[in-house]
Each structure stands twice: as structure tokens, then as C-alpha cells.
Amino acid sequence: MSRQVSILGAGLVGSLLSVILKKKGHEVTLYERRPDMRTASGYAGRSINLAMSARGWKGLELAGLREDLEAIAIPMYGRQLHMPDGSQAYQSYSKNNEAIYSVSRGELNKRLMTLAEQNGVSIKFEHKCSNVDVANNKLNFSLPDGSTQAVQADLLFGADGAFSALRQSYTHMDKVNCSQNYLEYGYKELNIPAGKDGEMMMEKNALHIWPRGNYMMIALPNTDNTFTCTMFMPFEGPNSFEKLKTEAEVKAFFDEKFGDAVPLMPTLIEDFFTNPTSSLITTHIMPWHYKDKSALIGDAAHAIVPFYGQGMNAGFEDCTILSGLMDVHGEDWTTILNEYERKRKPNGDAVAALALQNFVEMRDKVGDTAFLERKKIEKELGKRYPDQFVSVYEMVSFSHTPYNTAIQCIQAQDSLLHAIMKEGDFFKNVEDGRFTAKLDTYITEYHNAVQQLDFA
Amino acid sequence: MSRQVSILGAGLVGSLLSVILKKKGHEVTLYERRPDMRTASGYAGRSINLAMSARGWKGLELAGLREDLEAIAIPMYGRQLHMPDGSQAYQSYSKNNEAIYSVSRGELNKRLMTLAEQNGVSIKFEHKCSNVDVANNKLNFSLPDGSTQAVQADLLFGADGAFSALRQSYTHMDKVNCSQNYLEYGYKELNIPAGKDGEMMMEKNALHIWPRGNYMMIALPNTDNTFTCTMFMPFEGPNSFEKLKTEAEVKAFFDEKFGDAVPLMPTLIEDFFTNPTSSLITTHIMPWHYKDKSALIGDAAHAIVPFYGQGMNAGFEDCTILSGLMDVHGEDWTTILNEYERKRKPNGDAVAALALQNFVEMRDKVGDTAFLERKKIEKELGKRYPDQFVSVYEMVSFSHTPYNTAIQCIQAQDSLLHAIMKEGDFFKNVEDGRFTAKLDTYITEYHNAVQQLDFA
């Protein structure tokens, strides 16, 4: 028996979910608060470039959209580090030449919407959900003409982002736990245009980072040979947005801190004062569903900060898991939504924690010699012991290992690498049979410590 | 320059605050969503009996209501423990015969409202605040006839409890962090009536506890010689509300677990199925104020669980602190509200944590011989070293030491008592000069460890 599905939010996750549900035979209507971004002028939308990795691709595969998207995705095989002294360093992400992919959020969203409509999903734009009567599954919308509209939902998904109306309505119910936490950092987008002959001004196949301790700038490549830069900086304090009020202050700051980038940023001052300074939020909520009637998915269930590039990937993986549960449990939606929450909630918590931790890595540790050395050793360990050791970064970005498993490996990997690095130069040591015998023991100990975890 | 003050909520904290502000020359209007409890029939309101202690009394003193209330307050000098085997034990709260006081929440609230009106405060009942436009300080009320009313506030306080409309409106602003967490326990009120000659059926001047590990019952005395009992129990699990669905199940459970209380509870079955099972919430939010326009106070700022008997006491202390800041800073409300948040937020967090910790103490540890011994030793230490040692319980209940200081003393007191008790029978040991010399050292070490904290 198919259901009438209502989805709040025609963003990335809502659009993907609509296609998956439609392909399984359900009737699906998407409700989107904004106008159609494919036709509306002046659409800005959310901005941080996406880094698509394994979990994202898998979701796209389910929707049959992988090949289509590969054409507009730029592989980034590693981090190109821009040091304060003007020197650069490169750190590859994977031992197997795997990449994360720079994708335009807007372009991806438009294609997913079109695919949804091609599959028979109805999208209702400019439908702003003001609140949901959760017990009765009734949606209240406000429309552009000021009128309101009530809709009786059958099966409802809230894919409406960090400030989800469904999430908000859940929080008013008894025994619903929730939190929202803003980072004391803001972000601002800036641009590096193509050169005068249309050429790219930096290495194309890398994620560029200017690590500066407690703040940083990153840049991701676009298909039009531009780069989108994002500055992450505290709102207040010594190096902060509040200290950059005048053109002279901004110019002096960038000249001093990002000297190699400034010549590539002709519109720096204009961009800085035109583009907003946005904030970054992490949310938690429990439960994620209400009986067999509704559930939260993507940012609505677990809004996270962008520093692991996993926000969209995690949301698409929610869709993959839900799809798998539908295959197993058929039309038993009580079980499907119970199991979805049971399986995904710990992973939502884990990816939120991983994303916060990775901010410290990106803005601070990546500039550190010992850290770069450790990353090289991790890759060598992965090659030497492919069945026993996978670095946490690779688990998160290049595998489908649950986030909650990856995060539980961190401490064991920290101990392992600490022990190995205490012995001196790894790449010299591994020439020595006594060291490699010891290394076998270390790796076996590590593997024993983590193997009871759920890697499936 | 006096201000026009609007206060949301004519509960205990809102009513007290209104009197304090009025006495300082401000115009005050209280908006209360419920009808007037002094005239409305069938008013139930919130139920857990109050345990008034030092911080609460100080707030009442500011309002000039202390003497009036002492007449209806019943001192409880300690805990009367009802063990599973039917035996009883008594544990006094203080080394100085200090008490916490059982007070009727409804009676206290009525008197505070009347006092407010006598002082010239206007109370508008049945004004339910639906939301606040925080930036513009505009209040939107819905009235019983279905109409709405907008009110422009000058200075606004949200004293409207755990589900505060002002708090809710704050959470929609950028950079507001918040959380709500329900305990997996519910509570239900039950009754012990007076005897057939109107006499009290248990010790009057004690807080009765039936500690049972992961659940418990408590009873507080009322002025009409009845006791109000409250059962705290998990919603689900082996001993839980979900397991008590039939009269036979309730009867069997109480007969087995609370054998000595059952003969005193003739309406047990009726009460159990008539009275609701309520939930318990802890909330956090930051910030607590918006510019010089509005602030949260009491449960609206820090809803806590009732196990330390500090909810109302903490709210009244908020009023005391605010009153002191008005005395110092005059009409500089930006400074007053900034300082109020800076001083009180850490204490709100601390009392929330203390309340959660004390649940474990009440339901489980108080039945333990070593714990009772420790409490006796703590009192003896307080007598022998009055300038150096005050137990955390006494700090919280009988002093005005900041909660945040009290909670920071816990670990040091745990170490101290652990060291002392490891030496064997304390009350025998203190006869020995070598032990007391050692004790002097322990106490000096403890005192050095905590003396840099803020006890003022």
C-alpha cells in the first residue's frame, strides 16, 4: 500500500528523498518555502561549496543521478596548504588517490528538483510551513499573498534544514530533548576569479586552506575556473570580524595574513563588505520521528558545522539508510521509522562531533609539521595493513562505515600514532626488521581494540 | 527615571519581582495566562510542595513577606528515611538545627499576588503570551474570547516558567544557544490524610523519603496535618509507571515496596489513577537578556528538576541579585542586565547540575549506611572547623554562597571525606590526638583547595 508523502523542504535532501520515495511507488509532494531557484532571479541560497564524498555519491546513485553529476564535479585529491610565510604544502586525502568533489550546491539542487519533477513528484514553491500539528499530522502554510493553507499529511518528512518547522513543532511535545549551539565563529564568502585568459589561478584539483591558528580561509574550485573562498573567523576577539570594520583594516589584515591570496582577489574589499557574515549552528534533537506519521531527515535532524564537508553527505546517507529499511520492512512504517531513528541518531551525533573537531584540525593542526608527518604515516599504514588500519579521515570520506564507529576509532588511532612517532623517523625505521615486528604488534593491538565495533 | 515594566507570568518569581520593582519606583504590569487562582474554581496549578530555604527567605524579606509566610511554613529539620524492611532512620540537615520549610505553593503564590496588588502592581489574568518580537519588545497576547492583543513593552521580564514565551522567542534569534532535556522519570502526587482525630500520621518536622534505588517516594507535611506524597519513577523499565496499569498491579507494588505507607494512604488507588503522571525538564539558554530591553528570570532562564528543593529558591535569588544590581547601577539597565546575566548564568547552570545529582542521592544513596555515616561526619567537621568546612548541602540550603561555588567544592569534599573514612571509625578516632593532628592537616588541605573560590 503506497502512501501519500509530504516532504517539507526541496533542498538537497528533500529533493533526493522525494525521488527515492517516488521510485518506490509512493505519491510525493515537496513543499518549499522559497521560489523556484531554477527560474527566480537573484537567487542566492546557501553558499559554502559542497564537498561530495562517498556517502553523497551513494545517495545520488540511488536516484540514478551519479553520472549526470560527475560531469560537474571537480575532484580534489588533497589539501593545498598556504602557510603564513608564503610557502605551500600539499597533503593528499587518500592512500588510493581517492578524491572529494567540489560541487555547486545550487546546480546540484536544481538538477535534483528537475529529476524529482521528471519522476512525477509535485513541488509546491513559496509554501512556508509555519508549524505542524504533530499528533494530527496537519501542516500549516503561509503563502506569498498572505493567506494560509492547512494540509492534512499522511506520511511526513521534515527535510527543511537547521530551522525546520517540523523540528520546532517536535520541541513543543512532552519528552522531546533538543539543543542548538552556535559556534563563536562566523563565515564570509569571497571570490577568486579566473585569470585574464580564463585560466584557473591556483591548483584546480585541491581544497586550498590558509590555516592561521584560530581562524582560516579555504577555497574550492568551480567549473567556471573561479574559486569560492570562505573566511572562518571569530565574531569577537583579537583576529575577528568585529576588528575588520573599515576598508583599511580589511586590506591590512589580508595583506598581512593572506599575502599570497590578495593578488588573486581583485574584488576583495567589495566582496567583504557586500557579502554577509553568517553564523554556524549545531543542533541535536531526540526523538527523530513520531509514530508512523513523521520523521526528521538531514539538517532538520542534525544540523552540523561544515568543517568535515559531511553535512550533505550525512543527509544523503540518511536517505540511503531509509531506502534500505523500506526494502526490508515493506509498508511497516512504524518499524521503518523506529529503526531509522535507532540506526541514524548515534551517527547524527557522531558526525556533528566530528565536524566540530575537524575545525581545529583545518584551521590549526594542518599547518603543523608533526601533523603532516602523521598524515603520511597513516597513509603508509593503510597501504601496509589494508585489512587492519583505515584512517578516520578515510573512513569518514571514502567509506560507508558508520560515523559513530569512525569517531570511536579516534582515541585508538591517536594512541597508535603516538606510540609509532615516539620511536623517531618512521620512514627510516620501517627499513628495520625489529621496528616492523614491533609495528605488527602495535597494529594488532589497535585492530583488537576496534574490531568489536560495527563497521558495516 | 522609572520604567514601565511588563512581567510575563504571575507565578512565584514574577509576583515577587513585581513587588521589588514597584518598591523601587517603577510601574509594573504582570501578565498571567491563567485565571486568578484566588477566585477561580478547580485551580490545580503546579504541585510538588516547596521546600523554602535560605535563598527563598531572603527574597521574601526583600518583599517584606517573610513574617507573614513563616506562619504557614512547617520546618523540616531532616530526612526521615523509610527503609524497605520497614525500619526508619533520621538524618538531620544541619549541624546548627537549621531547617528547610514545607510551604504550599498555591498559598504562597496567592499571598504574593495580593501583596503585589496592594503595592500597586496591575495583574492582567488570562493573557497568554503567544510570542515576543524581541528586537522591538512587542508582546502578542491571545485572550479567552479568541482575540489577540499587542502590547509595546518598555522593560520586559520573562518569569513565565520552563516553557516561557520570551525564552522561546529568544531561541529564534541568531547566536542563541539553548537546550531542553527531559528526565526519563515521571512523578505523580499521592496523599496521606490526617488521622481520624485530625492528627498527623507521621513525624511532622521532617521530609519523609522512601529511597528504593532507582525510584523513590517522598512526603512533605501540610498545615492541615496531611502529607503530600510524590512518587518519582522511570516511565519505562522494570519498576516503572508503564508497569502499573491495573489496580492490582499498583496495590501489589505499593504493598511490596512501601508497606509502611500503604495503611496511611486510603485513597492510594484512586489518587494513582486520577492524578497525572508528569514529566521533569531541565533547560539551559544563553543569553539571558536582550540589550536593556528584556531578560529571563527563574524557571524561564533555568528550569531545573526538583530534587534539591532549589527551583523557587534559585528564582528568588535571581530577584535578590537583580535588586542588588539596581541599587548599585541605578537606571543603567544595560549594565544591570549584563551583570545580572554574567553573575547568574553560571549559578543557573550549577543549580541545574546540583538538582540532577541530588536525585541520585535521595533515591539511592540516602539508604546506604556509609552515606549516613558520612553525613554525620560532615556535621561534626562543620562543628569542629566552622571557619574551614561547610558541607555542600548546607552551603546550598542554608547559605547564600553562589551555587557555582558550592558545586566546585564537591570534589574536594569527596576527597576529604574519603580520606577520613578510610581511617576507620571517625567518632572513635577523634578521641586520639594523632588522628586529630592528621585531621587538622586534611582540613587545611581542603580549605586551601577551595579558598580561592568566590564564597561571597
Explain what this protein looks like in three dimensions.
- The structure is a homodimer of 456-residue chains.
- In chain A, helix 1 (12-23) packs parallel to helix 9 (311-329), helix 2 (54-62) packs across helix 9 (311-329) and helix 9 (311-329) packs antiparallel against helix 10 (333-363).
- Chain A folds into three domains: 4-72 and 105-180 and 281-359, FAD/NAD(P)-binding domain; 182-279; 368-450, no CATH class.
- In chain A, a hairpin with a 5-residue loop joins strand 5 (78-82) and strand 6.
- Chain A is globular and about 70 Å long.
- Chain A has 15 helices and 19 strands.
- The first copy, chain A, is of the alpha/beta class and 456 residues long.
- Helices cover 40% and strands 23% of the residues of chain A.
- The longest helix of chain A is centred in the C-terminal third of the chain and has 31 residues, at 333-363.
- In chain A, 41% of the residues are buried.
- In chain A, the strands form four sheets. The first copy, chain A, has a seven-stranded mixed β-sheet, sandwiched between helices.
- Chain A binds chain B through residues 171, 174-182, 235, 279, and chain B through 171, 174-182, 235, 279.
- Chains A, B: It catalyses: L-kynurenine + NADPH + O2 + H(+) = 3-hydroxy-L-kynurenine + NADP(+) + H2O.
- Chains A, B: Belongs to the aromatic-ring hydroxylase family. KMO subfamily.
- Chains A, B: One of its GO terms (molecular function) is kynurenine 3-monooxygenase activity.
